[in-house]
Write a structure and sequence with these properties.
The protein is mostly beta strands. It is built from one helix and eight strands; from the N terminus they run αββββββββ. The chain has an eight-stranded antiparallel beta sheet with strand order 6-5-4-3-2-1-8-7, with no helix packed on it.
Length: 159
């Protein structure tokens, strides 16, 4: 009888473990709706001149962004800028992103096309200008806007 109780206890633990491990991962909590990894590089000295469409000039930006179900944004980005008209954007810098996301159908420059034409404009708290934009449809997006201009964005839409 004692062996039967132990065997049933072990079996119950195994069944519980299987069900727990089958649950979807929510690494950023149950409220996370999007997890995004990104890399944008602009090394072409002609195409990558600093402008309103490319505030960083020659260089790139890399990092991650999460968006919860309420549209709140959290992220960590690194960028490297060179030969920029704004000296504050030259060199290596870190951005702690905290703000909100707004749905849009406008495709920002250097952002690959979303198959459904849906995007999320990412705003830093206190700013009226989007800091970044991502595709709202999950998937891997990459593009080359010309020689030396590369974009890679991984958008994971969580259940």
């Amino acid at each position: 009888m004692h062996r039967l109780k132990i065997s049933l206890g072990v079996l119950s633990a195994i069944v519980a473990l299987v069900f727990v491990s089958a649950a979807p991962a929510a690494a950023y909590g149950n409220g996370a709706a999007y997890q995004v990894g990104l890399s944008l590089g602009c090394e072409n000295p002609v195409a990558c001149v600093a402008s309103p469409a490319n505030p960083f000039g020659i260089g790139g930006i890399w990092g991650w962004i999460t968006i919860d179900n309420a549209g709140n944004v959290d992220g960590q980005l690194e960028f490297q800028g060179h030969q920029n008209a704004n000296p504050a954007l030259n060199g290596a810098h870190h951005i702690s992103l905290s703000g909100f996301a707004v749905p849009t159908t406008f495709q920002a420059p250097f952002i690959p096309a979303d198959p459904d034409g849906r995007y999320l404009a990412i705003f830093q708290s206190g700013s009226s200008q989007p800091a970044f934009e991502i595709e709202a449809t999950g998937g891997h997006y990459s593009g080359e806007s010309g020689p030396g201009v590369h974009t890679s964005i991984q958008v994971n839409v969580l259940p």
